[in-house]
Q: What sequence folds into this?
């Protein structure tokens, strides 16, 4: 009989929490009404004016360096410039960084991801680090003197 008493005792506590939940549901709507009056405070993680201003001035983090090679100097005659950029930078961020830093108008941004390459020195095997580069096309008449090597 002791075994059956354990099963019966489990059934009784299950009914009591159900009654408590019904009581809690009746109390909860009143708490929600109070929280609506405090809408003035911003929630955590919400973007404020300070964060937006910080994102505007991060051109030095996005544009790492201009890439100067035979091919990139040849693209200069088509009003295109090549930059090494941050691996997680998007096309929109690259465009806004070039426009704010150099003061030129950007019409198009192409992004190429260069994968890491294997390098062997004697017995040692190493890797050449990969990077992300962006080919930026400017408006007609705009130029970037620093990227041309002037």
A:
């Amino acid at each position: 009989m002791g075994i059956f008493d354990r099963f019966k005792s489990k059934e009784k506590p299950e009914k009591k929490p159900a009654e408590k939940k019904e009581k809690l549901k009746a109390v909860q709507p009143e708490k929600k009404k109070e929280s609506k009056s405090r809408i003035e405070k911003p929630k955590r993680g919400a973007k404020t004016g300070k964060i937006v201003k910080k994102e505007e001035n991060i051109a030095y983090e996005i544009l790492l360096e201009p890439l100067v090679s035979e091919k990139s100097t040849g693209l200069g005659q088509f009003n295109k410039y090549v930059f090494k950029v941050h691996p997680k930078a998007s096309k929109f961020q690259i465009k806004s960084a070039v426009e704010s830093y150099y003061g030129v108008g950007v019409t198009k941004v192409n992004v190429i991801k260069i994968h890491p390459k294997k390098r062997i020195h004697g017995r040692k095997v190493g890797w050449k680090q990969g990077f992300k580069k962006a080919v930026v096309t400017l408006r007609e008449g705009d130029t970037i003197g620093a990227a041309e090597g002037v």
